[in-house]
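Translate sequence into structure tokens.
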Amino acid sequence: MNVEILYTVSALFVLVFALTVVFSRLLIPVLRRHRAGQPILEIGPSWHLSKAGTPTLGGLAFIAGVGGALLLCAVYLLLTDNTTVLRAPALIFAYAVLCGAIGFFDDYRKLVKRENQGLTAPQKYLLQLLASALFLFVVRVMLQTDTSVALPFSDASLELGIFYYPLALLYLTGLVNALNLTDGVDGLLSSTVAVVAAFFLLWGYSEGKGTVMIVGGVLLGATLGFLCFNAHPAKVFMGDTGSLFFGGMVSAVGIVTEHPLLILLSCGVFVIEAGSVILQVIYFKLSHGKRLFRMAPLHHHFEKCGWSEWRVVGVFSAFGALFAAVSLMGR
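Result follows.
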């Protein structure tokens, strides 16, 4: 492992953590002054109604933190004539910002209209498809990626040919939305993404993947910094702005490294959360109104069963660590 990469990752982690904490402290009073409070759906858990008015759009803090840290790092690397190390991370960040911008527009509509709907599902998904298609095109041109994907637990790869692109679009948009669905309990998404970030660091270190380590470092700094304000009881929510940004960062790693299946495995908690919503809808329609879970996504089902938010976060993070451990064995 290149010692310079280790120094770069360490510096990025510290910078992102510090900037996220500082920007969050500055942003929360501004959001309160502008009454940028999260409206709560009446169909949600009744005890969540007390959270109405908690500032949202907090994702802007760690997006700015990651962007500021990467910019400072780029300036330093430019002076040392070694900017190539940030090429792939910069593309990943750019895609994540596009996803976050879609989330920001969604959050903005919620706040302006004072409702909890924002963009319609088709509108949001169309924008995500366009952002993902642009990302795939740029990665193909700049990083010369091919249309094969590595298979976990083996040294083999699967050549997908022309089928790669629609499957890659489905992978990107699906995983981005899976992370968005997971953001429903104080500190849940931040904690589970932190586990995935730790997996990135370990995976990147073990195989000398600088890009994966850099993404892991900035994600860990962002999640831990934001958890200082987002842990229960949350002082601020990240909103779709933050959850879609995290989704973009995590999913893009799979495309850049050509290991989307491994990323899906490491993101098992998010996949299960999204799967619970799909199963709920299918079962509801087939059973003419019956529910498979008390409420979907799955974390709300356990809340309805009497679990505290701390317990939900702890158990889901533990399962996230389990998926990460399995993924390390299958890298």
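Note: The two ends are 17 Å apart (CA to CA).
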